[in-house]
Design a protein that fits this description.
This protein is mostly beta strands and 469 residues long. It has 2 domains: 106 residues, Ubiquitin-like (UB roll), CATH 3.10.20; 292 residues, Beta Barrel (Porin). It is built from 6 helices and 22 strands. A 16-stranded antiparallel beta sheet has the order 5-6-7-8-9-12-13-14-15-16-17-18-19-20-21-22.
């Protein structure tokens, strides 16, 4: 009996020492409470705009093991607003349970009177074939980002030259207390002396008149956005559209507006959903992105019943890390249009914003298309942060840049049932490959130089200004 008594005392003492040792080795709770959030550097941006992008809020209780990921994603969200050049998020323990968060931002320059001097062609490589300086646009583009410190955007465009364009837009990201609903208005007037009226031999065909305008366009509309989840966004846009062309264009291509029409009036409704889990919107290296676009052209309000230009577009991208220097990027996109002959004016496929690298000189129009892109990325120069000594303002003084060396393979296919005659690249498999050197720097700027080869064994050096995937 006495022996059992001493044995129980020893067991109790052992358990006490074991528990006390665990408590000493882990003095903090497995949970953490965000006691306060401090924000520094936001001279213009309102505090609530910054707090909206965080994965946590004051007085939230978080699992300690999830804290690092929440902080990382919050920083990505803030950088992807395009309001800041640099963002740091630090934490300080207040006690065993509570923690203070300190956010420091370096704001960008928000008002830009951009001088416009642009090439009117689809890309630099097409323009370089002719080096025709009459095919240039000039003017001024005034942008006020982060208007009133609320992430609103105000834009004016006054452009002359090859394309005369006047445009205005105003976007408000949030109009409700929960900061989930936004809206915007857009208006644009454009006219040209030279107009693309057809595609032949996989290139655009132009008609030009020196003393009059061959095409005029006008559109105005309203946009709505809904963003309940920080990484998910819904867009809606309703627009009224008007376009007219000169008589010779109708005679050259009666299907430009369909039925030999010279005037085109219609309403359009556009919807887009996107779910963005990338570390960066401008040159992502990790994460994924999925989006769905749907367009309805013609509501039957003003006689626009059968435009045959409605479509659904699916887009997916995936980015992963192999090791410290090597990454992969994958993208797939597909467009499906409603049955029926569309007008040339509303038909778009590859050769514009979407393209197979190596076919930069060509336009491949059609009703449906599929596009796949793959890329192996090597970090040639890891991210460098430096300061320009003769610049005083913090908005420009501190810069970052990274250089990548990439190899890629692209593939595509365009289905065209109506305008394929004389265009050999439609209804056939497209394949392109090459290497590229990409320079990525602050203010979301990307400069890329590609050396590509296509399936016709044509090679070339091409420039681009956005991430291809």
């Amino acid at each position: 009996m006495l022996r059992a008594y001493y044995t129980s005392i020893v067991l109790v003492a052992f358990l006490f020492l074991l528990l006390s040792n665990q408590s000493h080795s882990n003095p903090f709770s497995p949970f953490v409470v965000i006691d306060s959030i401090q924000v520094k550097g936001n001279q213009i941006t309102k505090r609530n705009i910054i707090l909206r992008e965080l994965m946590f809020h004051e007085k939230d209780t978080l699992v300690l093991s999830d804290l690092a990921e929440n902080i990382s994603k919050s920083r990505e969200n803030l950088l992807n607003t395009s309001l800041f050049n640099f963002v740091t998020i630090d934490t300080v323990r207040k006690d065993s349970l509570n923690m203070n968060v300190k956010i420091t931002v370096v704001e960008r320059w928000y008002i830009w009177p951009f001088p416009i001097f642009e090439l009117a062609d689809r890309n630099f490589n097409v323009w370089w074939k002719t080096k025709d300086f009459s095919r240039t646009d000039y003017g001024v583009y005034i942008v006020k980002d982060n208007f009133r410190g609320r992430r609103e955007s105000l834009k004016f465009k006054f452009q002359m030259g090859y394309n005369e364009d006047m445009a205005f837009s105003y976007t408000i990201p949030y109009i409700n207390k929960k900061q989930t609903v936004g809206m915007g208005i857009v208006a644009d007037f454009n006219r040209n002396h030279e107009t693309t009226y057809a595609t032949a031999n996989n290139e655009q065909v132009y008609y030009k008149e020196e003393n009059t305008y061959t095409r005029e366009r006008f559109s105005q509309g309203i946009r709505l956005t809904y963003r309940k989840n920080l990484r998910a966004m819904h867009y809606w846009e309703v627009k009224y559209n008007f376009a007219s062309v000169s008589t010779p264009i109708v005679s050259y291509n009666p299907d430009y507006f369909l039925n030999s029409a010279s005037v085109f009036k219609y309403f359009s409704v556009y919807y887009k959903f996107e779910y963005d889990q990338r570390d960066s919107k401008y040159y992502p290296m990790l994460g994924y992105y999925v989006a769905l676009d749907a367009m309805k052209n013609g509501l039957g309000i003003i006689g626009d019943y059968h435009l045959n230009a409605d479509y659904i577009l699916l887009n997916g991208k995936y980015y992963s890390k192999i090791n410290k220097r090597f990454y992969t990027a994958w993208g797939i996109k597909g467009k499906i249009s409603v049955p029926g002959k569309p007008s040339y004016f509303l038909q778009r496929a590859l050769g514009y914003s979407d393209y197979v690298r190596g076919y930069d000189y060509y336009v491949i129009d059609g009703q449906h298309y599929a596009l796949a892109k793959s890329e192996l990325r090597f970090v040639l120069v890891p991210t460098q942060v430096t300061k320009i000594p003769f610049i005083k303002t913090e908005k420009f003084k501190k810069i970052h840049y990274t250089i990548y060396l990439n190899g890629y393979v692209d593939a595509g296919y365009v289905c065209d049932k109506y305008y394929y005659v004389g265009n050999s690249l439609t209804n056939t498999f497209l394949l392109g490959a090459g290497i590229s050197l990409n320079y990525v720097t602050y203010y979301d700027k990307v400069l890329g130089i590609d050396y590509s080869i296509n399936k016709m064994k044509e090679t070339g050096i091409f420039l681009h200004y956005i991430a291809p995937i």
